[in-house]
Amino acid sequence: MDLGLAGRTALVMGASQGLGEASAIQLAAEGTHVILVARREDALNDVKKTIETAGGTASVVTCDLFDRASRTQLCDAIRKLDRLDILVANSGGPAPGMAPGIGSDIWVREFDAMVLGLIEVMDTAVEKMKHAEFGRIIVIGSSGMVVPIAKLAVSNTLRSAIGGYVKTLSEQVARYGVTCNMVLPGRIDTPRTRSIDEGGAKNESLDVEEIRRRSWSAIPAGRYGRPEEFGAVVTFLASECASYVTGTQMRVDGGSIKSVNT
Ligand code: NAD
């Protein structure tokens, strides 16, 4: 299947590791020039090197979603691009915490970065895409949007807000050839997942492998997902082939979510 991604340009947020990195590497492997965005320039340059070693092309832009001036700079940089065909909108995981009792200061801070920050970048990108009559907006969410995760009240709530926005946006821009979809990871084996498991092992005085095996047993596939399995779904949604897929939320969770519908 020709994905029609050669010669396109993608901006991938949170590209220094994990799901963003895996998505960037796979898009680059299909011939897309990838603009790698995150906070740490050195880590982004390492990903750039990996992509170039494999024969792809990439560039680096730093942005901290918690910093409004930094977001404005990213949006200005997007406006100046010759083209932008694909946006992978991704952020770090929000502050953990259970309901009730999360402070208003935390809600405001996380909303500003995770929701407003992503909306600013999506809105800037979509203007360019509408003009070009082609665009793919792919937002990384979480299975917690379907089955809330008790310890992640902020994530459950704010990602659902983003879900509402992405669906609303998808209806406004579909006629311009711009699609907007979300991909919902279950447990994918990224540095974030590893550090969560290490924290769990410490809390319970267990070996981390025991914690991982326990998590796997709750997943029908019997294991965590690999980052490249997630990146492959992002890459398909970014492709020409996915031109009639919009306003959806696609799960990549090894069957973890038991319900039929989202
Ligand atoms: P990760 O922590 O490994 O990577 C997050 C990326 O976002 C990194 O590149 C990091 O530098 C960047 N980032 C963090 N804070 C930022 C900020 N303030 N400004 C700009 N960039 C920032 O996480 P991951 O496992 O790749 O997950 C990506 C997203 O998907 C996260 O929001 C995570 O909560 C969510 N998620 C992941 C899983 C999973 O199993 N990995 C499951 C559900 C949801």
How would you describe the overall organization of this protein?
With 262 residues, this protein is of the alpha/beta class. The chain has two domains: 9-188 and 226-250, 3-Layer(aba) Sandwich (Rossmann fold); 189-224, no CATH class. It is 47% helix and 15% strand. It is built from eight helices and seven strands. It has helices spanning 18-29, 41-53, 68-80, 104-132, 153-173, 191-204, 208-217, 227-238, and strands at 9-13, 33-38, 58-62, 86-89, 135-140, 178-185, 249-252. A seven-stranded parallel β-sheet has the order 3-2-1-4-5-6-7, with helices on both faces. The longest helix is centred in the middle third of the chain and has 29 residues, at 104-132. The protein is globular and about 55 Å long. The structure holds nicotinamide-adenine-dinucleotide (NAD). Nicotinamide-adenine-dinucleotide is lined by residues 14-20, 38-39, 63-66, 90-93, 113, 140, 142, 185, 187-188, 190-193. Nicotinamide-adenine-dinucleotide (NAD) binds at residues 14-20, 38-39, 63-66, 90-93, 113, 140, 142, 185, 187-188, 190-193.
List the helices and strands and how they pair.
Blueprint: E1 9-13, H1 18-29, E2 33-38, H2 41-53, E3 58-62, H3 68-80, E4 86-89, H4 104-132, E5 135-140, H5 153-173, E6 178-185, H6 191-204, H7 208-217, H8 227-238, E7 249-252
Parallel strand pairs: 1-2, 1-4, 2-3, 4-5, 5-6, 6-7
Structural class: alpha/beta
* CATH C-level class of the largest domain: Alpha Beta
Quantity of strands, as a count: 7
Low-confidence stretches: none
- Major sheet characteristics: 7 strands, parallel
Please state roughly what percent of the residues sit in beta strands, choosing from under 5%, 5-15%, 15-25%, 25-35%, 35-45% or over 45%: 5-15%
Q: Average pLDDT, to the nearest integer?
A: 97
Number of domains: 2
Strand order of the main beta sheet, please?
3-2-1-4-5-6-7
What CATH architecture of the largest domain do you see?
A: 3-Layer(aba) Sandwich
**CATH superfamily placement of the largest domain:** NAD(P)-binding Rossmann-like Domain
Bound molecules: nicotinamide-adenine-dinucleotide
Q: How much helix, percentage-wise, in residues?
A: 40-55%
Distance between the termini: 28 Å
